[in-house]
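Notes on consecutive records. When two proteins share a document, each keeps its own sequence and its own token line. Never mix them. Below: protein one.
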Amino acid sequence: MAMKIRLARGGSKKRPFYRVVAADSRMPRDGRYVEKLGTYNPLLPKDSEERVKLDMERVNYWLGEGAQPSDRVARFLEAAGVLAKTERNNPEKAVPGKKAQERIEEKAQKAADAEEAAKAAAEAPAEEAPAEEAPAEEAAAE
């Protein structure tokens, strides 16, 4: 029997509340569990004592029995100093999604078009300007 230490969701709609439970990995998320090991209330501030409560003695027992903590529970245990911190690497994290990349490309294209238009506008009057000045100089000379 593969045991997991994971979160089982309770609470009403839009008001989550979780029980930290030791459960058979084949059971549904909120289904039957072997033992309740603590609670997690994400609505409380991060520095609150009540946010995460764990019965560390029982957690250590289940870890000793070979239970695997879920990612979120592993983070709680790292914060409590029970598990060694694991280095996480998500190189995809900072990469924008498809839509955002398309928007960036569109923006770059518009900027390039605007720049070309500005250059063309800047070059055209520059060529005409000396031609306009010449008659004015001639008029001044007369």
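Protein two starts on the next line and is unrelated to protein one.
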Amino acid sequence: MSDVADAIKKLHKELPPEVTLVAVSKFHPVQAVMEAYQAGQRVFGESRPQELLSKIQALGESAASTGNQELYSDIRWHFIGHLQTNKLKMVLPYVSMVESVDSLHLLQSIDRWGSENGKVTDILLEYHIASEETKQGFGADQIREILLSDIQYSHVRICGLMGMATFTDNESAIRSDFSRLVALRDALLPQSGNYPNLPDNFGLLSFGMTHDYRIAVSMGADIVRIGTLIFGERSY
């Protein structure tokens, strides 16, 4: 068994069944995706449009070469990086979720693209919970304004929130960051269904990465995004 397959199988055993593992395959070759797939992984995360497209094409070619066109067709791709609006057509036709909607402009652009192309895209709003100013995301008040406004985005489905904690070994600081994400979700939940942009199924939380996913799971994460633990340090 390869190191990638071994890591996937260990995580599948460790994580509660209700937690979705996103294997963050960015900066790793398509062969690593194939190894993870063969070990049972089906959800992968990418952060660069060109890399996402190249992997989808390579997987399609690999499937065709085996004579099994359905091979890899059940992969669900999550886009997890900063998405530029001029790259939407490279991403939105292929992903099951954009986890990293970090601006009103991007939200409006995804909704407009969906209207023009007949697709409703599942998204998460990125909440800036970390101390680093360089990280992307909305403030809490901005998220409330979007969700509780009368402006309806008919071609996006806002499923919940995503956040990244401060990169630190201080567990108390990480828990403090994560607790703000959980608290905002919990404050919004009683109002779900009462506003156009706050659907009944709102409430997913995506937080936790290689260095802090166990903390995230203990605090109620629905989605964890793990890359280095599975694939090792970036390959390119």
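For the record: The two ends are 23 Å apart (CA to CA).
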